[in-house]
Specification:
The structure is a single chain. 91% of the residues lie in helices and 0% in strands. It is an all-alpha fold. Helix 1 packs antiparallel against helix 2 (30-60), helix 2 (30-60) packs across helix 4 (95-129) and helix 3 crosses helix 4 (95-129).
Length: 130
């Protein structure tokens, strides 16, 4: 992911978080706000780290070495362990925190999916024009 795309992604996540927090604050669901904010942060971390690791491995070589594969596997496991710890912590806090987390986490991937559909549509239109 290029530097410009990273900045754009983080800006989009910030706007999503602000909008979602504003909507939930209107209903006075502060437990949901905390959970949704944590979900947005974890989704951004998950997506960003996944792309960073894959780009790093892609740049190093076309045929990964054993040591490189071990590091990549360790990073994937670490990412899922962090997500599991957050998830278990939210279960301990209560259902509203967990529900908010799922809303926040899902919102980021929903926006990414819509952005993907927009890019596909733009690429198809560019092919039709050519």
């Amino acid at each position: 992911m290029q530097q410009q795309n990273r900045k754009q992604f983080l800006i989009q996540v910030s706007f999503i978080e602000a909008a979602l927090a504003g909507i939930l604050a209107a209903f006075r669901k502060f437990d949901l706000i905390l959970g949704a904010s944590l979900g947005l942060v974890m989704a951004a971390y998950n997506f960003y780290s996944l792309l960073s690791h894959l780009n790093r491995e892609d740049k190093t070589s076309s045929t990964p070495q054993k040591d490189s594969m071990r590091k990549m596997t360790a990073r994937f496991i670490l990412r899922y362990v962090i997500l599991a710890i957050v998830f278990v912590g939210l279960i301990q806090l209560g259902t509203w925190h967990l529900f908010g987390f799922m809303i926040g986490f899902g919102t980021v991937y929903g926006v990414l999916f819509l952005d993907y559909l927009r890019r596909v549509k733009k690429a198809r239109q560019a092919l039709k024009i050519s």
